[in-house]
Automatic annotation (TrEMBL):
Protein name as it appears in the record: Ribonuclease P protein component 1
InterPro entries from the UniProt entry: RNase_P/MRP_Rpp29_sf (IPR036980), RNP1 (IPR023538), Rof/RNase_P-like (IPR023534), Rpp29/RNP1 (IPR002730)
Major enzyme class: hydrolase
Record organism: Halobacterium jilantaiense
Catalysed reactions, as listed in the record: Endonucleolytic cleavage of RNA, removing 5'-extranucleotides from tRNA precursor
Amino acid sequence: MSLTPESLPRHELLGLHVRVVEDTDQSRVGIEGCVVRETMQTLCLDTDSGVRQVPKAGATFEFRLTDEAAAPDNGAGTAFKPAGGESQTTGESVAYVTVDGVKLLSRPERRSENGVDSKWR
């Protein structure tokens, strides 16, 4: 399955850049980094200040997709933003996709390989 904004909740998340945009614990809002590990209930992000573990429940995540996954013809629901202060030397397209952490509550292998919806909705 190719990575598109629509398929993101069912896709492998390791290696994707993510930012916490909302959380029940306000101290976690704004944490951003690369997903280095995922469990059924948490995402572990490699941030500038080290590895941080963020619970999926109660959080809303903003994933950054690049290149073909961010192409404008990938369908409705894609939130495009200009690159802003980020340094982009490759000229790649960037899409920011917001996902409620509850949609990610499942074992990563069941969500990504089998395409099974989470039973924790």
